[in-house]
Amino acid sequence: MATAIEQLLGVQDLDREIRKLRREVEAKDSLRAQIQAQVEPAKKRLAEAQARLDIIQAEIRDREAAAEDARLKIAKRKNDQLAIKSNEAYRAMEKEIAELHERVRREEDAAVEAMELREKNEKLLGLEKVALVQEEASVAESLARFDERAGTRTTELAALEARRAEAVKGIPGAILARYDRLFGRYGDAAIARVEHGTCGCCHMKLAPAQVVAAHKHDTVTSCDFCGRMLFAEQAEGEAPQEP
Length: 243
Ligand SMILES: [Zn+2]
What we know:
6 helices
């Protein structure tokens, strides 16, 4: 029949596993969000490619409108020219028409250039769309694997908690409460093993009487320094010394 301290050592092993698993389960949502966020750069690149294309498209529209506007002005000026009497005014109008022709040419050239750029950017946009689809598929796969693993972790945690409920049976309430407080406070261990006369957790040198008491498993001894419960292994054939 195991003593309370011996039983608590088993409980402590379970508590460490439970603590680790509980952390994983609690971190689940933020980890899941991190995986989901992996698709964001590809989405951003696609949006940027689309924005670039929109700018180019707007430029083509503006250039074409400007060219059309200049052409309409040329037609109007040519019509006005018919009514002009003075040579000087006629020549001024000629000059204006020539400038408008130049403007039509400039705007049309710019439109053609923008169209070439549009073609390149449409190809880039297509590539970004493909990349996003691939990224989304990869993230969906990661999420499925993650959810499966997370589901397993939750089941494991429930099983461990059930095992713990069994493992604490028979431990006196006051000792268990003390153990729980210590484990809660330190997070790593409520029971320290005695190592070469020192506390295995805080590493302080223990009084000889404490070491002797730690060998007796039917009572619970605490470290004077950190307050953890002390446990010393009883070596084969070695009876605990009396103080
Ligand atoms: Zn200690």
